[in-house]
Amino acid sequence: MDVKGPNLVKGIHLEGLRVLGKPAVFARHYYEQGADELLFMDVVASLYGRNSLLSLVEETANEIFVPLVVGGGIRTIDDIRAVLRAGADKVTINTAAVRRPEFVREAAATFGSSTIVVSIEAMKRSAGGYEAFTDNGRERTGVDAIEWAARVAELGAGEILVTSIEREGTGRGYDLELTQEVARAVDIPVVACGGAGKPEHVAQAIAAGASAVSLASLLHYEYITGHETDRSAFAAGISTHHLDNPGFGRVQATSLANLKSFLGLPRRNPGNAMTNV
Known about the structure:
Order of helices and strands: EEEHEHHEHEHHEEEHEHEHEHH
Mean pLDDT: 85
Low-confidence stretches: 231-235, 271-277
Radius of gyration: 17 Å
Number of strands: 12
CATH superfamily: Aldolase class I
Oligomer: single chain
Shape: globular
CATH architecture: Alpha-Beta Barrel
Number of domains: 1
Distance between the termini: 20 Å
Helix content: 25-40%
Structural class: alpha/beta
Strand content: 15-25%
CATH topology: TIM Barrel
CATH class: Alpha Beta
């Protein structure tokens, strides 16, 4: 869930962000649908040098009992400590890791590898290969994304969240080549992100080597369209004004419960945190 200020937002290629509603409302819905983890990303944090999600994390952690992953603007050990104290179980780092790779090692040594997720935002180069980007896909680094994935795994990262900038928000499916290359380069879990538009895309990403997938438009679209004619939607924290987003035109709306059924996965009972899938 991409967050800007108090709002859940969604864009295409990590740009053109549009307001979807209140993050807490969507978080509760996805928890009840059986989400295994919830990822909150402050998408403007790197611009302002801070993560402003602590109050949202605290609110969510008090009501929702699945792992919470938080990213955006996390630059120091103290930043990580503050997010974990607010109730997060993991953090994602990108910009700070690229600028100073030893930060990954220090963070893993302090909090444990299982707490540290490195986010890699990648774009395909015209000459071949992939380049890593920072600042929510705004800044080029000149760093080869596959080589960077291998390095952060050596430095102690516990997971890699790999996002295709070109596919993000489009509904065209994950970049399977990118997913496969990163998965082959490391021996830690790889989470595919960016592009899911139908259940088959999720299955393809898993077949390409992803240990898990991150979803946004595929689920947001189904939830919001279900409230399109509901006059109480705005009061409930859901905005339907974004439905002209061209990326959503390629999305086959589905719920998380239906997606898990398609993949043959058992549903988690939200009332019992011990039955997580």
